[in-house]
Amino acid sequence: VAGENFDQSPLRRTFKSKVLAHYPQNIEWNPFDQDAVNMLCMPKGLSFRTQADNRDPQLHSFLITREDGSRTYGFVLTFYEEVTSKQICTAMQTLYQMHNAEQYSSVCASSSCSMDSLASSIDEGDATSLAKLQRYNSYDIGRDTLYVSKCICLITPLPFMQACKKFLIQLYKAVTSQQPPPLPLESYIHNILYEVPLPPPGRSLKFYGVYEPIICQRPGPNELPLSDYPLREVFELLGLENLVQVFTCVLLEMQILLYSQ
Question: Residue 239 — left, alpha, or beta (φ > 0 → left; ψ -120 to 50 → alpha)?
């Protein structure tokens, strides 16, 4: 388990994640920082879900700044896949049995009744809350399907967010589709890593993803730096008043800290 969250139910806890594979294995000018990438891909750790939970894919980005000032951008698509290991499913059920036993003990301990009548030691309100707890806060290996979070990530020298987002979504669709893509998945990964060059400054580049073409544009020397993040999302997340306040702080050269879940 990652962090001190044992008071949470097992499906609400986070677990330690790890990098399963990365390609290419090493690049001289851009060494792979496994610990940083692992932490930034899953900042909250590995998580589990069941068929009753929302499992929509989520996309986020991160930035690694090295001591020499060089920057590396990461774009991550997090999705959930079914757990096929019976050992893991059994372990999850065991965690729930332990958790519910602790909750039951807690309810009994909070009761003011005597110990010689355990059945009467839980009043009606406690019994109702305990029944709800066990109904909605449980995992049954014979009834529920267990899912675990997984990430695919692209690491780039420039923040081509839209292009990376489209490629990752197409790759995810190819992995989860009943109909296999025209070419093996390795072909598309090899193509974007070794055959798609960075567009020259001031030019656009069109390349083919898995299903649809993708366009990325690079500003010229006399243009503003690349900012491929949609401004509309900033207004939606921060709101107009907060954004004006942040912009004012930027103009006044104040230090700004944004804190988010």
Answer: left
